[in-house]
Amino acid sequence: MAPQRAGQKRKVVEVPRPEPEKQKEEEEEEGELDDELDGALIDDGDSEDESEEDDDDDDEDDDDVDEDEDEELDSDEIPSSEDEEDVRQQLRDLKTGSNTNTKRASTPPEKLVGSDTGRDISAISPDTPVHPLQEGYEDKPNYRIDTDANGNPRYVYGEIDPAYDSDDSEAPATTNTIGNIPLSYYDAYPHIGYDINGKRIARPAKGEALDSLLDSIDLPEGWTGLTDPTTGKPMQLTKDQLETLKKLTRNETPGDGYDPYPEMVYYFTGKEEVMPLSAAPEPKRRFVPSSHEHRRVMKMVKAIKEGRIQPFREQTEEDRERQEQEEEFASYDVWANEEPQPDHVMNVPAPKLPPPGYEESYHPPAEYLPDNAEKAAWEQQDEEDRDRDFLPRDHAALRRVPGYERFVKEKFERCLDLYLAPRVRRSKLNIDPESLLPKLPDPQELKPFPTTCAAVCRGHEGKQLWRVKLSASEAVNVVTWRPGKDTFILAAACGEEVYFMVPQGDLCDPEIETASRAILDAGF
Fold it and tell me: CA torsion, points 356, 358, 360, 364, in degrees to nearest 10?
């Protein structure tokens, strides 16, 4: 019995045996099928030998069928005999048109089976279901040949319909290929770009004003109000993207679990440690002169002995001139060529403090020193109402002058005024005062008007202290007063009437005024 190869034994199901001639042909075909499953390219002589070995293996399998028949029939993983017959029939049909005397085709047999791409057919067993070939399947090219404008052939490829197991099965829909070009360039065109095949992408339809209003009121999920620059359609974002944008607008970290302020890792501690980081003893080379440095020093010593290096040679005339030039170059006036530059047009220097006066002297004259009453009045006033911030004091010597307690505050207020009071340069208007006066007409144009003095009204030249009106029709003829210090009564004759008057205000005290009124009341 021929030795059995590992991995080649298959479970079979007993089927009705065909006639002897058909059985012989089927056995030869099964042997060739086994060779194909192994993926070997052999000659006709070798295929016959292996067919005989496979026949022996099949005989052994037939002998074992009776023992394991019950167990195999109970298994759900055993393919039916109809499926195996379909697969064998398909392989026979494919082999009909080929020459059996030549080498076998290089096309992998797994591609001849059907849609299970990339599966090794040698691993097919009764435990693995096999998909039959599709009916009417034809491998046609995915292009057509046209003629271009020059008469040359042009290949036009059709749309690719990816299968489920293709790498492009989950590829996104056809997108715009205009790149980073803004869509505003296509405002004058009915399309917004081109797809990967060079076809125009139509502009998406836009709703009316009412539709846009309703869309703004009923905001759908993922609405952003933005437009996709590649398609021109409203941009829809996922919940995660919206959450990320919300965190970015709030200056929060977009990622979960990210700590922007982690605890500081003290790589170098400021604490002085008692024990060293490394207690290894110092190596011997730290205390032995370096041989490399010794060789360099010996080379220098040899060069000095030979005269190639002169450490203390006398300076030549060229060296002296060079040294003098360096000294002259180094000693020059930095501000010799400095030219005064005018200040900026808007530069306004800070106003200077007024110069100190006699009252600020440590030994002022006596007339500048305040007395006790002036000191008390100055202390009772508020700080804002005082004419000056200090009182002059007399000191016998300058060394006896104490520290000024308001020095820091005054300097602070000075800096505060310079900081808060902006200085602005205002141009003074150079205007002639006569230009501000109105232009009067010529007096000759204003005639007739009086030109001769007809009457002169003269009055007294004394000082008027009090005035009162007595009568509107009669003139005052006589005015007299009652002599005395205790009263102040005036009498005036106006026509046939006599008037008694008591002056009021600053001319008469309230007591004299009361006494004068009492005398008049008693007499009349």
Answer: 160
Query: Residue 144 corresponds to which tokens in the numbers above?
Result: 């057509």
From the list 364, 348, 363, the residue with the least C-alpha distance to 418 is 348
Contact 364, 358 (CB under 8 A): yes
pTM score over 0.70? no
Q: How far is CA 458 from CA 148, 452, 469, 471, in A?
A: 126, 18, 20, 22
- Ordered by start, the domain boundaries in the chain are 20-123, 361-396, 476-523
- At residue 173, the pLDDT reads 58
d(C-alpha 188, C-alpha 199), whole Å: 18
Distance CA 260, CA 524 (A): 107
Rounded-to-integer distance, Cα 524 and Cα 517, Å: 11
Is the pLDDT reported for residue 41 higher than 50?
no
Give the span between the Cα atoms of 312 and 275, in whole angstroms. Answer: 50
Exposed, middle or buried, 183 (CB in 10 Å: 0-12/13-18/19+)?
middle
DSSP three-state, residue 220? coil
Q: Counting beta carbons within 10 angstroms of the beta carbon of residue 194, is it exposed (0 to 12), middle (13 to 18) or buried (19 or more)?
A: middle
